[in-house]
Amino acid sequence: MADILLIEDDPLVRRGLELALSRHGHHIRAAATGEDGLADFEASRPDLVVLDLMLPGVDGFTVCSRIRSADQTPVIMLTARGDDFDVVGGLEAGADDYVVKPVQPTVLDARIRAVLRRGNGDGHGVSVHGALRIDTTALTVTLHGEPVALTPNEMRLLLTLSRAPGRVFSRQQLLEAVWEHDYLGDSRLVDNCVQRLRAKIETDPAAPLYVQTVRGFGYRFGPL
Amino acid sequence: MRRIWSAAFALLLAGCGVQPSEVTDGGTAPTGVAPGVTLYFVDEQGALVPSERDTGRLGTIADALALLLTGPGDSDLRTEIPSGDVTRVTVTVGEDVVELRVPLAADEVTPLGTDQIVCTALAAHVQAGGSAEVKARVHFTLPEPDSDALRTCPLTE
Amino acid sequence: MSRRPLPRGLRARLIVAFALVTMLGAGAASWASAESASDALVDSSQRRLTEDFAERIGAIAPTLTYPPDQETLDRLRAAVGPNTTVTYEDLRSSEGPHADLITDELLDAVGDGDRIATQRITDDGPWLLIGAPVMITAPDGTRTPSGIEVYAVRDLAEVHRQIAALASSAIGTAGAALPLSVLVALIAARSVLRPVRELRDTARRLADGDLDARTPPLGADELAQLAVTVNEMAESVQGSMAAMGRMQADARRFAADVSHELRTPLTTLTAVAEVLEDASGGMEADAAESARLAITEIHRLVRLVEDLMEVSRFDAGTVHPRLEEVDLAEAVRDSLRARGWLDRVETTGPETIRLRADRRRLDVIIANLVGNALRHGAPPVRIDLSASETHVRIEVTDHGPGLSDQALPHVFDRFYKADNARTRTPGSGLGLAIALENARLHGGDLTAGNADGGGAAFILRLPIGSEEP
């Protein structure tokens, strides 16, 4: 289904996840250290990275940042603790989603599929909002004519919001629409993704034009 | 508690001020009254004897000596003091000594006469409440050696 | 007369006692000196009056005719002074105004003796009575009563006034000592009370949990010994507490470490369990059943370890709620739906209750309460929602046998199993303990009891919380 790079130091966990995810139809490459993982990433350019945060040597946060600075490949973190410290650090490093060990392979598979899904073009073709041009068929975005590289999650978030300009989406709604999480999803995923999206499309991220915050409720697109 | 305090206070107050007392001794009773005065003369045997003279009161030592100098009068007694016109004797009562200044010269008076003067003066002194230990000194107008020695009455020794 | 209550407080009592002792001492000393002074005063004035009396009689006596006549007696009386009476046998001089004060005892003493007699009386003021026989002394010194007797009454009012002045000055002296004694008492009280107050402060700090509190012992008196003892006590309590705290921390860290270490193998087990489950269709019957048993136990183990981790986080105090606006009815429905309990649980109450809560933790509470009711109670299980101005109330009841009196105090204990049979249930044994911790984390409370119908009833109260700032 997808080419996945699994970076995990424990050999048994690595092998177990490899077995399980393979059964869900994914093609798995595995690396035991951060250095190996990054080298493998450069060599193979996978569709998605599943990354353990607690790695010897170069840790998961650093690996995540390096990957994110290279291109828009989605990253799902494996956290051993589920502690807020790890989650916040991982999201700030640019992770798209996270799962807590021990994770059921079906859950991990669902997250992988959700993160990889770029959103379906709804046939409207091109929509233009000020300097922002969104091609919903080709799934490309340009700002002042310059192409903007978005991760799949950022793309889906932008599509979801821009489909109904002015409508307020709660974090819960966005979690379900973009991440396909259940009702207990972590709203910090939304806030982090919004920040990254703003950094890419807003002229002044501190005074956003396109993705605006509605205090106490959530986010909306525009109105311009 | 309150009762103890008031008792203590009452005791404190009662301690102050003049307290009534039993009859207590106040010393020797005064003396000095007498029906008369005692003079000393010489009897027929030449002995010194007291003689009561009923004057109605004791009087002073000077009074007694004045009476002595006037003589025994019409009694069986005689005196060895020569009689003279002047009977005035100056008496000074000191602490231990009674000083007598008699209008007589020492050679006019016999020793017995001197004893008469001394005994009469000391008797009057004692009777007036004076001390029995007091001695007398007789000053004559013309003294002789030792004539002004301290003397006592030989009868009371 | 109502008694005033004795002064309370060590300071007041010390000062009063000190002042009283000082006053008593000063008073006694002044009183004693005033007493001896007044005795001396009375004696001397009495002697003076008596001597004067005797001298006056002695001076005039040689001039008196004897036996005396009336005129002689009057002369003698005049010579002795006013308030004098002179008698001789049946004769009697004219009398002074106080002649009637002469007592019979004095008359007897004078009549029988040959000495002067005196007596003090206090009828109508203090008086000195003097009486004396006048003696006749023979040339050889023998004395006989003359029969003349002289009596005089002398006023002692002046002496009395002097004594009163002495007494009042004594009282004044004692009074003057009062401020000084209070001052000294204050200083003494301070020196005694300061260590007492320090000890009290130390004891209070110890009681409030500040085990570092100590009192530096000053000097070597009983208070210093007490301070040393208190310090030793605090030392040993502190030692025990520290040891206990260490043991407790060790135990908690051990639980956290164990559950954390268990996660890694559990991750592998969870991953391969699914593979095993898919493959079990092709196995022999007993192998397939074994695989399913292993998978079930793996899921239980995962659940247990997650609950242990959660409890460890509460013990370590590292739990912070992420509060957000929550629709209560919706949250309850979501919880039930996610676990497939919607058709087994009946929910009543208004749809419009909103509160600020941590969604995930609220879900944990509801899931644990409902799960507990479904496992241990009997259907129907009900959830009643209600709200006041400040709190929401969530009551979960079942229709089972309810909680026994024995079990009631322990339902929130960790790993407490109500049934002696220790029936193996899917629960970790930590669910209710975690639910209670989560309720408290929200500033709310969770209580257990029995419903009127006989089933168990768990009541959760959570504060509605303030609006987002």
State the main characteristics.
heterotrimer; B: 157 residues; alpha+beta; 4-stranded mixed β-sheet; two-stranded antiparallel sheet; 3 helices; 7 strands; 25% helix; C: 469 residues; Beta-Lactamase; Helix Hairpins; Heat Shock Protein 90; 3 domains; 5-stranded antiparallel β-sheet; 5-stranded mixed β-sheet; 9 helices; 12 strands; rod-shaped
Summarize the structure.
The complex is a heterotrimer of chains A (224), B (157) and C (469). Chain A has eight helices and twelve strands.
Question: In terms of topology, how is this protein built?
Answer:
The complex is a heterotrimer of chains A (224), B (157) and C (469).
Chain A lengths: L2 E5 L3 H13 L3 E5 L2 H11 L3 E5 L7 H11 L4 E5 L4 H9 L4 E4 L4 H12 L9 E4 L2 E4 L4 E4 L2 E3 L3 H11 L5 E3 H9 L8 H14 L9 E4 L3 E4 L3
Parallel strand pairs in A: 1-2, 1-3, 3-4, 4-5
Antiparallel strand pairs in A: 6-7, 7-8, 8-9, 10-12, 11-12
Helix pairs in contact in A: 2-3, 6-7, 6-8
Chain B lengths: L1 H14 L8 E5 L8 E6 L5 E6 L7 H9 L20 E4 L3 E5 L9 H17 L7 E5 L10 E2 L6
Parallel strand pairs in B: 5-6
Antiparallel strand pairs in B: 2-3, 4-5, 6-7
Helix pairs in contact in B: 2-3
Chain C lengths: L9 H51 L9 H11 L3 E5 L2 E2 L11 H9 L2 E7 L5 E11 L5 E13 L1 H51 L14 H58 L5 H32 L7 E4 H11 L6 E4 L5 E4 L1 H18 L4 E7 L3 E7 L33 H11 L3 E6 L5 E8 L6
Parallel strand pairs in C: 7-9
Antiparallel strand pairs in C: 1-2, 1-5, 3-4, 4-5, 6-8, 9-10, 10-12, 11-12
Largest contact between chains: B-C, 40 and 59 residues
Oligomer: heterotrimer
Helix/strand structural class of chain A: alpha/beta
Number of DSSP-assigned strands of chain A:
12
How many domains make up the 3D coordinates of chain C?
Answer: 3
Tally of individual domains of chain A: 2
Low-confidence spans of chain A: pLDDT under 50, at least 5 residues?
Answer: none
In the CATH hierarchy, what is the class of the largest domain in chain A? Alpha Beta
What would the principal axes of the Cα set say about the shape of chain C?
A: rod-shaped
User: Uncertain regions of chain C: pLDDT < 50 for 5+ in a row?
Assistant: none
Binned strand content of chain C: 15-25%
Biggest sheet strand line-up of chain A = 2-1-3-4-5
CATH fold label of the largest domain in chain C: Beta-Lactamase
Alpha carbon gyration radius of chain C: 54 Å
Number of helices of chain C: 9
